Give the backbone structure.
Amino acid sequence: MSSPSYHPSPTCQPRIIIHGGAGNITRANLPPASWHAYRNSLLTILRTVNHSLLTEPCSDNQPIGESSGPATALDAATHAVRLLEDDPLFNCGHGAVFTRSGTNELEASVMVSNLRPGGQGKGYIKRGVGVMMLTHVKNPILLAKEMLVKGDDISEGGNGGGAGGHVQLSGEEVERLAGKWGVEKVEREYFWTQWRWAEHLRGLEREKREREQRERVGVYGLQASAPERDHEAWAKEVEEEYLPQGTVGCVVLDCYGTLCVATSTGGLTNKLPGRIGDTPTLGAGFWAEDWVEDVPAAPAAPALASAALSSLASRLQVQGSPLAQLLTQSWSKGLRDCLPFLPSLPLRSSSSSSSSPSYTPLPLTAHSKSEKPQPARRRRRAVAMSGTGNGDSFLKLSAARTTASICRFSTPSSPLASAVTRVAGPGGELQASTGQRWGKTGEGEGGIVGIEYIEDADDGDGKEGVSGRGEVTADFNCGGMFTAWVDKSGRERCKVFKDDY
């Protein structure tokens, strides 16, 4: 189902960023051939969805090009994630990892930044939803999208298409609704891939070895403790194999000024059955919101300069100082003619009595009679972000919502890029949350991608010529994070490490 039709006037240049997983990625466990496969897939998806944002809609039930107008953020973000779900390279959909019991349990979520996309038309009452413990839904992101849109469906007495007012549903009940809503379902075998199954078996064998090691420690009293042995095994594994522990996601700013984040995952390799991660949990692995804030107006530059010079002149205690001479010489009149904000400074001459002050104090005023302080300007701000990595750490910190709160409630206001680094960057809150376990278990590892949008609220009513600006950001604290985005100049970018591969 596509999002409802909107026809507000465009307000900004669309932006998009997508990501794969993050974690113990190194050049040793990501050879060039693998990197090129990931890169080609990410850039192909990026190119497809970005084209729809600029020119025509993309909807999973409506072919691209069937109707006019650029795609909405909701349609674009969910379409990008659907394409990622269909690619076995990524830990979601067809490429999802296995639980300890050898099953697949999938999760997905979607959220928009405001109730009324583009400031006009029908909005989404639920704003954000999560679906989890899915075993038969081919594309979990499409189920999440349906649940969001159905939240406004009043055809059945306002019960959200059968989902009521719930924003999170799991298991058999939500899969029953998927069938009712026409979301495609498949047999469990669809999610099986040789690569993920081999990871699953290696993980079980590793757990067996570690269990036997702990038993030997107990019987023979070996010096090395069990946790130390576990950490050694994990560190060795880092060198040999990239362990998927991450969500895929997409954050989009459409031309109407609406942000949307969409995410999907299979979870952690060999997770316990029934484990629910950060991906479908609002505020943990994803978040989007907008607000209006005051921007204090700075005093006019002439007023500031006049006050500063007057204050400086009042501090000239020494007769005949170079600055005093400069300001009292006859040619200073020409300087003031060019720079009218310079004050007239009637300093006393050098022939004045030495017992009297060497200056004439001037009243200090920030504004002249003709200048009035400017009223505070108001602006609309919005952020949306998706996290990837060790989901349990994101859950413990409510990482995505914490990042948004830093932006919204800091004084002075913090840009999203700084907030993302503070939470997910090296030495940030995710890393700090692990204490002495950092680098030993995979805890705390991850990254966040996002988009920040700023628009003058007083003009944000869709009038022609109104413009806002979107900024893409990303940071991570681990070996690498698969990321692709379109930069300000329109160039497609893709990276996995801080530097180029």
Residues 480 and 497 are 5 Å apart (CA to CA).
